[in-house]
């Protein structure tokens, strides 16, 4: 490395950009903790609301705190007629991630505290976004299918209400539990691309709605959250388990990316995959359709044998959401409905000890030169 050629960490691989007390990603043991608790333990023993409280407050809630948190969230779910009107004006074929990005931006126009970046206001705005995002996702999805929106039901849990506003009905408890588990697993993951985007936006002094709008834009990409949709498209393209291995060999021939595999941090397995796979298997049992999980098992075994690459969370989440009855374009918006918790926790942390995020680039363009004669 010479003076004129600094070490470039392309993609910021391995760069530790700041401290954080929200979650710890430990690739050496394939583990992940939120505020010190193993994500698997949270998924098996807690509700998504308890985990949201934990991420925002550092501790799990007691019964009264949980009751108050649930009541506040349930009371904020309605969206205005103005936002419903904006959603109805979206093009019929708008991608749901573009729809929710635009809806969150519009919520920023309506929020009485948008520009207030104090911690208290950011917490109140985070709660409003947590509550309203499912309503906006569902309204946009239903509008794209020519269906009227369903009013949120404050008596339902966060997970139950998501099914209610999207599908108009709440499924069996084991389906709701599998969905709740997926929300917990998707809630937070250190300095991933969308969270780092949200923190970068926050570092300029910009507000929560701006940070979340940017986070959603980053999450849409197929290398990040968009992979859960891509996984289901891939499984649908393969069609049946007997074709899985041959299909994969074709991808190897073209050195193509196989969606739902690989991870920037975990190289020996994603800590969230076993739990999500267990619940995806349960969904296959409930629905009585083993095709997708059988295909997944064959693909994962072949990827490990031939490429030494493990699946990431999006791999089991894709078929799980399909088996729960959600259309594929809703999969990444569901990730948004969950990750708003992690994004907000990081925004609050960034605001508390802020320094503008502003790295350098090493210039490789034309040498300095004179302007041509004019
Ligand atoms: N399919 C095929 N090959 C892969 C895959 C994959 N999914 N992932 C990595 N590889 C290969 C790379 O091409 C590279 O090969 P090379 O050394 O011959 O060039 C090698 O494995 C090492 O990959 P990395 O460079 O370590 O991957 P990186 O950290 O840059 O990227 C990423 C990580 C973006 C997640 C990548 O694995 C990928 O594109 N996966 C598919 C998309 C995906 O599933 N994203 C979801 C991420 S998790 C989440 O958001 C919840």
Question: How would you portray this structure in words?
Answer:
The chain has 374 residues and is mainly α. It folds into two domains: 33-176 and 188-223 and 330-352, Orthogonal Bundle (Citrate Synthase, domain 1), CATH 1.10.580; 227-324, Orthogonal Bundle (Cytochrome p450-Terp, domain 2). Helix content is 57%, strand content 3%. The chain has 16 helices and three strands. A three-stranded antiparallel sheet has the order 1-2-3. β2 (31-34) and β3 form a beta hairpin. The longest helix is centred in the middle third of the chain and has 26 residues, at 119-144. It is globular. The protein starts with 22 loop residues before the first strand and ends in a 22-residue tail after the last helix. The model has no long low-confidence stretch (mean pLDDT 96). The structure holds acetyl coenzyme *A. Acetyl coenzyme *A (ACO) binds next to loops.
Descriptive terms for the model:
Citrate_synthase_bac-typ; citrate synthase activity; Citrate synthase; mainly alpha; Citrate Synthase, domain 1; tricarboxylic acid cycle; 2 domains; binds acetyl coenzyme *A; about 375 residues; 3 strands
Topology, number of strands: 3
What is the alpha-carbon Rg in Å? Answer: 21 Å
Domains counted in the coordinates: how many? 2
- Average of the residue pLDDT scores: 96
| Tally of helical segments | 16
Strand order of the largest sheet: 1-2-3
The named CATH superfamily of the largest domain: Citrate Synthase, domain 1
Q: Write the element-wise H/E pattern from the N-terminal end onward.
A: EEEHHHHHHHHHHHHHHHH
Question: Helical proportion?
Answer: 55-70%
Ions, cofactors and other ligands present here are: acetyl coenzyme *A
How much of the polypeptide forms β-strand, as a percent range?
Answer: under 5%
Q: What's the CATH topology label of the largest domain?
A: Citrate Synthase, domain 1
Return the CATH class of the largest domain.
Mainly Alpha
Largest sheet: 3 strands, antiparallel
Main structural class: mainly alpha
- Uncertain stretches of 5 or more adjacent residues: none
Q: Shape from CA axes? A: globular
CATH architecture group name of the largest domain: Orthogonal Bundle
Give the N-to-C terminal Cα separation. Answer: 41 Å
Organism: Teichococcus deserti
Catalytic activity: oxaloacetate + acetyl-CoA + H2O = citrate + CoA + H(+)
GO molecular function, one term: citrate synthase activity
Keywords: Transferase, Tricarboxylic acid cycle
